[in-house]
């Protein structure tokens, strides 16, 4: 579930950053780009922890 949420955040923040940049709104574009980078880092961390933990499908693992 966290992988889906992190991916969703990455996609949405990237889309809004591009839209803000094309609308000539630099401050919101930078803010959304920073949030997209944070979402990308979160996605990498979640995937690495899942690989380290194994392929178990435990809800509480």
Total domain modules: 1
Give the H and E element order.
HH
Kindly, what is the distance between the CA atoms of the first and last residues, rounded to a whole number of angstroms? 13 Å
Q: Which consecutive residue ranges, at least 5 long each, have pLDDT under 50?
A: none
Largest sheet: none
Query: What would the average pLDDT be, to the nearest integer?
Result: 89
**Cα radius of gyration in angstroms:** 15 Å
The beta-strand count equals: 0
Query: Helix/strand/pairing class, anyone?
Result: mainly alpha
> What percentage of the residues does DSSP assign to strands (E)?
under 5%
Secondary structure tally, helices: 2
**Helicity, in percent?**
over 70%
Q: Characterize the overall form.
A: elongated
Transmembrane segments: 30-47
Pfam families: DUF6343
Keywords: Membrane, Transmembrane, Transmembrane helix
What does this structure look like?
- The protein is an all-alpha fold.
- The protein has one domain (2-51).
- The protein has two helices and no strands.
- It has helices at 2-22, 26-53.
- The chain is elongated.
- 10% of the residues are buried.
Name the descriptors.
transmembrane helix; transmembrane; membrane; about 60 residues; single chain
């Amino acid at each position: 579930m966290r992988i889906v949420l992190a991916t969703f955040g990455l996609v949405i923040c990237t889309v809004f950053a591009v839209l803000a940049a094309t609308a000539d709104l630099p401050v919101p574009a930078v803010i959304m780009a920073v949030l997209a980078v944070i979402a990308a880092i979160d996605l990498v961390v979640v995937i690495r922890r899942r690989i380290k933990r194994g392929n178990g499908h435990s809800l509480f693992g």
